Amino acid sequence: MTSQPPGVNAVLQAVDRRGDTDERPSFFTHVVLPILLALAGAGAGAGLVLATTGYRGTIEATIASASPSVLGAAVILTAGAALVGAILFVVGFYKVMRRRESHFARDRVLREGLIDYADRLARSASGTRAREHVEAMRRIHTDARIDERAHPAAVDLVLVAVFPLWYLYILFSLTKDLPDHARRQARFLREVHNVVDDAGLEVPEVEAVPSVNERSYLLVLVLALVVPFGNLIVLYWLYNDPEEHFDQQWRHEDALVELVSEHDEPAPETAPEETEAPDSPDVDPGGPTHEEADEAEPPNDVEAEADEASQEAEPEFTVWACPECESRYKVPPKRPVRVTCKECEHQEVLEE
Fold this sequence. Notes:
Elements: H1 8-16, H2 18-21, H3 27-53, H4 59-65, H5 68-124, H6 129-147, H7 153-162, H8 166-198, H9 217-225, H10 230-262, H11 290-295, H12 301-313, E1 318-321, E2 328-331, E3 337-340, E4 347-350
Antiparallel strand pairs: 1-2, 3-4
Helix pairs in contact: 1-5, 1-10, 3-5, 5-6, 5-7, 5-8, 6-8, 9-10
């Protein structure tokens, strides 16, 4: 039974999960609609009071002239609409914070799978450049694990309810983290393409490298704290900026899936065809040269038979298994001899 090459399963699973992790909550549903509901509820309550009592010159006089049942109905309409709007707003903001965590977590799995896959390609590529690119991928992955720390969305919501200024920290995190993530991801994907090129494969062309519109946090603070209705602009950015990043990343992921699907044949379980490894140039195999053999006198029959028997008794080759990729080769019995694996270019000197 064969198994898929390293990393392929992780890549495919990460791509399959993107519909769940890269959420796209609606700005209209979770921001605009709650405002409209609150306004509609207040308007309905006021309309009910005016319809039953009429306008009495001032708002206070109009309310005072309304019956308790009318006032109660107006309050229920206003508060009910505001409550529904508040729930929609909180759910939307929770989704915005949660998708940061889920997207980063999915990307960790995707990077790990691509590192394993690229490492396999680098072993089959000639030279050392491919392996250098794989090491660069590992460094980027390590940096991402350190910088992209988890911020549980539920905890952030509780902190905002207890300490409202925590909202400013959430704005900072959502404004800064995703652009940093996008730049890091762009470098990582370039290294993946470099490994693929060194291995002699082609990745389908993709127009744009994943990116995110970078917003100044100072501007975000001014809009959120000073400008009237500035929070609407900030929330619009938080809802919609990541979606362009997701679209660009998904196009790259589709290209990577096409790549690994075309080259996901597992390595054969049987050993490759045995071939003779090259002798070390420093080892003298002994015996006369061709010219000396032509000039030398042929041995007598007894000596020739003894030589033939000696050659039959001594094996012509031994089998050497590469410790890196486990490929097997025939090597001469004489020692020392230097052998080089044709699969992974591992070299070793065999002693007595």
